């Protein structure tokens, strides 16, 4: 089972909406309420979801779109920045390793095509599947973010993971 990452196509917009806006598809840890149904299309028409400060790619297996992965530029200080990434895999494809492969591929891509030294990802502490996927992808757990995110009417603890450029060298 191999996945590849590719730019968002117009035909992917319904999947992106489903994964970010429909409670049955977002999963227990991604439902943040209803959103503007046109925002995804507006951004896609603007830049195809690929910009200097981040983007979205589709996670694909063969010709099937199985999810999405995103990254956002975060300022570390006046002289540097890092990337924060996240993903959502469609419910029917979860638990099959697509997320792990996508996270590893995006990290390699970002290290190969940008000068950043750090990529981070966070998830809710109870999202055991995502924590395992990040660890399998080569991310290191850094710590707990107490009360770090608000979802479903309450503040929830998160877990922060990171990968730095030299981690890939250790892998080779």
Automatic annotation (TrEMBL):
Domain of life of the native organism: Bacteria
Domain N-acetyltransferase span(s) in chain numbering: 3-166
PROSITE patterns with a match to the protein in the record: GNAT
One GO cellular component term noted in the UniProt record for this chain: cytoplasm
Species of the source: Nonomuraea jiangxiensis
Name of the protein described by the UniProt record: Protein N-acetyltransferase, RimJ/RimL family
Keyword DNA-binding recorded: no
Gene3D superfamilies per the UniProt record, alphabetical: 3.40.630.30
Keywords: Transferase
GO molecular function, one term: protein N-terminal-serine acetyltransferase activity
Entry-linked SUPFAM superfamilies: Acyl-CoA N-acyltransferases (Nat) (SSF55729)
Pfam families named among the record's database cross-references: Acetyltransf_3 (PF13302)
InterPro entries linked to this entry: Acyl_CoA_acyltransferase, GNAT_dom, Ribosomal_N-acetyltransferase
CDD domains documented for this protein: NAT_SF (cd04301)
Alphabetical list of PANTHER family matching this protein: FAMILY ACETYLTRANSFERASE, PUTATIVE (AFU_ORTHOLOGUE AFUA_7G00850)-RELATED, RIBOSOMAL-PROTEIN-SERINE ACETYLTRANSFERASE
């Amino acid at each position: 089972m191999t996945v590849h990452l590719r730019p968002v196509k117009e035909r992917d917009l319904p999947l992106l909406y489903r994964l970010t806006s429909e409670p049955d598809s977002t999963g227990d840890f991604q439902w943040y309420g209803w959103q503007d149904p046109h925002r995804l299309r507006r951004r896609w028409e603007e830049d195809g979801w690929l910009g200097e400060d981040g983007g979205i790619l589709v996670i694909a297996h063969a010709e099937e779109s199985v999810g999405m992965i995103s990254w956002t530029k975060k300022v570390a200080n006046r002289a540097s920045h890092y990337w924060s990434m996240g993903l959502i895999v469609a419910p029917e494809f979860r638990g099959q390793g697509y997320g792990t492969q996508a996270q590893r591929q995006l990290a390699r891509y970002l290290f190969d095509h940008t000068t950043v030294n750090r990529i981070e990802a966070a998830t809710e502490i109870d999202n055991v599947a995502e924590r395992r996927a990040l660890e399998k992808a080569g991310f290191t757990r850094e710590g707990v973010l107490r009360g770090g995110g608000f979802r479903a009417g309450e503040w929830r603890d998160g877990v922060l993971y990171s990968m730095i450029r030299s981690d890939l060298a250790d892998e080779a």
